[in-house]
């Protein structure tokens, strides 16, 4: 008999059982403990579990928040929705229950290692039903799946059967690195990009320091984080200091923070997760006063590329922003979808109209180009 349960903490599920459902995941049980401990403002955590005769067979993270419908909009569209928000506060904000995580790269359901592929659609159906029931119990009308892989037929078919609408989400950039050197990587790029990066490399660069502890520079890291967040058009969550220190502490060598110094001034940092297969960029923060003169973004990019090549890491996963630069730098893109349904038919119908105007590919040509590559 299949049963389901929703928990408010990942500690309600055994570490080994959770990790068995996500073999090799960098964002594993310990990562979610660090996220919980950080107490990110305006987010509550849920964890969905599916059991077969009392045995855990599928799990997924979920969260509750107040969601602004224009979160993935940028450029002119963002300016228009910001004006609307000033005139009509709360017009674009809804209570949201979402399967997935605001601080994970993609939405994945984890299945126990002995679950055959043929049973996964049934378990996914039960998991979505459990999410709807949990959302109803908590009085939340809007249910979504955040950043499901576009080419996953189980997600697509299960969400369609449950009556969900869909729209493109922000694609995830991935740079494959089958190169023997940074110079070989540069040779794979377009002529103008290659020439520009080599010119930047000839200029004096900042001092680079790899750290697994940033307690002594945490105020400066958070200053850079807040400054970067203020400039960003696309940002879903605001991370507290405990997120950065907690991830570094709990992931024990699988998380690293790279610091960039000009003389004694910390001018940039880059929090990443790593294993022998991939380097995952979680957040890059920088001081805009130093960015142009010291080419901080491209310096950090080439530092990460060099690290991957030196350690024979096959892929640099570089997140969901800066698509214009990433297209030039040779990235490939993995498509993501948002699925959603409001239990109120009228609101659900209105969302069908709203999504025509707030799709992320409507306002950013580079993002639209990245999304088109995933189809």
UniProtKB/TrEMBL annotation:
InterPro entries: Acyl_CoA_acyltransferase, BioF2-like_GNAT_dom. Pfam families: Acetyltransf_6 (PF13480). GO terms for molecular function: transferase activity. Residues 192-320 form the BioF2-like acetyltransferase domain. Keywords: Transferase. This is GNAT family N-acetyltransferase. The lineage of its organism: Bacteria, Pseudomonadati, Pseudomonadota, Gammaproteobacteria, Pseudomonadales.
């Amino acid at each position: 008999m299949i049963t389901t349960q929703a928990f408010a903490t990942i500690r309600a599920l055994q570490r080994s059982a959770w990790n068995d459902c996500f073999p090799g995941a960098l964002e594993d049980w310990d990562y979610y403990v660090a996220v919980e401990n950080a107490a990110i403002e305006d987010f509550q955590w849920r964890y969905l579990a599916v059991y077969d005769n009392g045995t855990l067979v599928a799990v997924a993270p979920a969260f509750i928040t107040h969601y602004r419908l224009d979160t993935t909009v940028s450029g002119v569209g963002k300016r228009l929705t910001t004006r609307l928000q000033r005139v009509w506060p709360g017009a674009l904000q809804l209570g949201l229950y979402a399967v997935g995580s605001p601080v994970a790269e993609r939405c994945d359901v984890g299945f126990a290692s002995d679950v055959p592929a043929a049973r996964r659609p049934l378990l996914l159906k039960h998991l979505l039903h459990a999410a709807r029931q949990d959302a109803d119990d908590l009085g939340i009308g809007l249910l979504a799946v955040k950043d499901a892989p576009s080419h996953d037929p189980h997600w697509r078919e299960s969400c369609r059967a449950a009556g969900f609408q869909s729209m493109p989400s922000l694609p995830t950039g991935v740079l494959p690195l089958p190169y023997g050197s940074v110079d070989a990587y540069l040779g794979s790029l377009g002529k103008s990009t290659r020439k520009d990066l080599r010119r930047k490399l000839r200029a004096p660069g900042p001092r680079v320091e790899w750290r697994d502890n940033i307690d002594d520079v945490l105020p400066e890291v958070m200053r850079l984080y807040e400054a970067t967040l203020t400039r960003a058009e696309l940002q879903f969550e605001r991370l507290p200091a405990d997120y950065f220190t907690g991830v570094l502490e709990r992931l024990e060598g699988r998380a690293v923070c790279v610091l960039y110094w000009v003389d004694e001034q910390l001018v940039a940092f880059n929090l990443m997760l790593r294993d022998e297969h991939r380097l995952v960029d979680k957040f890059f923060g920088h001081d805009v006063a130093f960015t142009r003169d010291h080419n901080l973004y491209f310096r950090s990019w080439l530092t990460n590329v060099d690290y991957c090549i030196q350690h024979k890491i096959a892929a640099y996963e570089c997140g969901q922003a800066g698509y214009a630069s990433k297209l030039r730098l040779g990235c490939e893109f993995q498509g993501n979808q948002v699925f959603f349904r409001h239990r109120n038919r009228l609101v659900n119908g209105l969302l069908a109209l709203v999504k025509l105007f707030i799709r992320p590919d409507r306002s950013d040509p580079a993002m639209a180009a990245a999304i088109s590559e995933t189809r």
